[in-house]
Amino acid sequence: MMPGYTVSADLVTTTFGPLDKYVAANDNVPASIRGLTGSGKPYLYSAKELAARDRETEPLHTLDDLAKLQGFIYLGSPYAKYDAGMDEAARVVTECAGKLMARGMRIYCPIAHGHAVTRYQELPRTWDFWKDQDQPLIDAASSLIVLEMRGWWDSVGLKYEFESFLNAGKPIVYVEPPELGVEEPKLGRAS
């Protein structure tokens, strides 16, 4: 468990309070992923809805297609709200990044990178801070792999990353951890 985090039977919290209260400020979320509820209140389209839209409008790509591109591939995944905790989220995504690298792909994984850095340096836990850190890498990446870990559709950061690649017309591939030989922890296990 990272310093500053506690786990109770029903809630993971940070020193800033419960993680479930943190969502991106609307001015930081692209308008194209915002919508209106029946009551007229704004909401964010889920990543599942965006992925379905992408799959309907774009040709499907494969991992082999991405491996042929110049540059590096950005590996997006859930983290802060992962049901088994952030340490487990980092473990799963780091293992998947390693499996992809072993296949000859050039991978940048913000979770593997950021999780390791925060073990040795206390940094802000805000979405805006990490968005600023990742934006140049989102812009420079050739493509995106969406790691469909449990709850991936609820990740604010992954929604933003997904929308950025979608708007840039860059290829997106969807992969579940078992497809790479990586198992997720059982439901309800906290790190």
Can you give a write-up of this model?
- Helices cover 36% and strands 15% of the residues.
- It is an alpha/beta fold and 191 residues long.
- It has one domain (6-180): Rossmann fold (3-Layer(aba) Sandwich).
- A four-stranded parallel beta sheet has the order 7-6-8-9, sandwiched between helices. It has a three-stranded antiparallel beta sheet with strand order 1-2-3, with no helix packed on it. Strands 4-5 form a two-stranded antiparallel sheet.
- Mean pLDDT is 75; it is low at 1-45.
Write a concise synopsis of the structure shown.
The chain is an alpha/beta fold and 191 residues long. Helix content is 36%, strand content 15%.
Q: Share of helix among residues?
A: 25-40%
Measured between the Cα atoms of the first and last residue, the distance is 6 Å
The CATH topology corresponds to Rossmann fold
Proportion of residues in β-strands: 5-15%
Overall, the morphology is globular
Write down the overall mean pLDDT: 75
Q: State the order of secondary-structure elements, H for helix, E for strand.
A: EEEEEHHEHEHHEHE
Main β-sheet, spatial strand arrangement: 7-6-8-9
The secondary structure category is alpha/beta
User: Which second-level CATH architecture applies?
Assistant: 3-Layer(aba) Sandwich
- Largest pleated sheet: 4 strands, parallel
- CATH hierarchy, class: Alpha Beta
Task: Write a concise keyword list for the protein shown above.
alpha/beta; single chain; disordered N terminus; Rossmann fold
Q: Topology of this protein?
A:
Elements: E1 6-7, E2 12-14, E3 17-18, E4 34-36, E5 42-44, H1 47-57, H2 63-67, E6 73-76, H3 86-102, E7 107-108, H4 110-118, H5 127-140, E8 143-147, H6 156-168, E9 172-175
Parallel strand pairs: 6-7, 6-8, 8-9
Antiparallel strand pairs: 1-2, 2-3, 4-5
